Amino acid sequence: MVLMEALAQVAALLADRTRAAFCGALLDGRAWTATELATHARVAPSTASEHLSRLIEGGLLVEHRQGRHRYVSLAGPHVAELLETMTAFAGPDPKPRGLRAASASEAMARGRTCYDHLAGKLGIALKSGLLDLGVVTSELAITEPGMVWLKELGFEPSKRQVSRACLDWTERVPHLAGAAGAHLCDVFFERGWTKRIGTTRAVVLTPAGEQGWRDLGLS
Amino acid sequence: MVLMEALAQVAALLADRTRAAFCGALLDGRAWTATELATHARVAPSTASEHLSRLIEGGLLVEHRQGRHRYVSLAGPHVAELLETMTAFAGPDPKPRGLRAASASEAMARGRTCYDHLAGKLGIALKSGLLDLGVVTSELAITEPGMVWLKELGFEPSKRQVSRACLDWTERVPHLAGAAGAHLCDVFFERGWTKRIGTTRAVVLTPAGEQGWRDLGLS
DNA sequence: CGGACGTTTCGGCGCCGGCCGAAGTGTCCG
DNA sequence: CGGACACTTCGGCCGGCGCCGAAACGTCCG
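ok -> structure tokens follow
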């Protein structure tokens, strides 16, 4: 079956810990330079360069060159979905983790971005808030009044799928992804309701954010 | 990031063409013996044995031994979902295929099973029929009258997620997976409405099936 | 019991692929 | 123009892994 060979090729791209680390870093949705990624994964720039070329050729990443820099980012939401599906599968089964490991990943569990939308406890809270408001169904489809609500927040439907369930690997609960999830995440950052912790994917709700959520009727 | 290393390990399991071929075969939802898989993938039994052990250890497959046979099957729907997501990603981009290749996979495109539910053109037809009947929404969530309709066909909700969208790699269109999709597939086989072609995943609608679909109001 | 057969273990072979450092290319900026 | 810097290419090293065949193990059945 020729199709499974193609699958094997994609899997091979992700089967290397260095390349996987690159993809994990890029899951924050931003563009990284080659050296940033090399430092992040602790390999020589030459090594990183070769890995990036392979990932780009395989369609997982796209580059856009700017002067002497080579910026790379995920090739699109479908790559993020692929990665998220795989991490959900590979992710920590109900293994109780040690205390320090737990506290280290605590911030990530509380809130994080998954490519372009909110995940972690923040993502779950958002989901249940939206559910209470009747914006989404329990299967995370957008309701008609929900679409009105979204448009009031500046949401414009595009070609991209409006809503999608994304299985969170920390909480094991689906949360809102897709265009709507991405838009809400954007809005929250623009309004200063959420903030990144350093340069990681970890995200916290600011005091203004808590107020804002209440004003919207979210939790 | 330790999580991405786990991802790399899972990816490594699928990064081998022989192991990928095993998984592809097992996507029909049935249990295969070690030698059957070895023959299918054209490797020595000893090689197959080692691959199977790795796949089982990695949680992708489960075995159940019976006398001198070792039956293996996918470890569950979540594995099928993983594989389907990956094939959807790796799958044929809009490349026009040659004529003989096309006719070879024609039967597969017309109808096939994807682990435990219908896919291919048959899956798409089912989806649009269910949509017309108001059983599912366009996002493939089950409606309330739809649930009544399903129960009349013997469907019993369980712990498993009722409905899930599965992206078809031949048609690039989401179709109905999850418990409801699996149940409908079962019903169709039981009633003799659908039949496998040989031992493959390819499936055809029988004449009785065409009548049955009309009786249900499906297309 | 003894042969047939499905499966597993082991040793050995060969190749692929990840890694690095050194040298080369291209870009920026003083 | 010349140095600093981001990145790439190349050669070489090394480990891991997929493959097989031979032999052992376990089960079935006459």
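Residues 94-104 of chain A have pLDDT under 50 and may be disordered.
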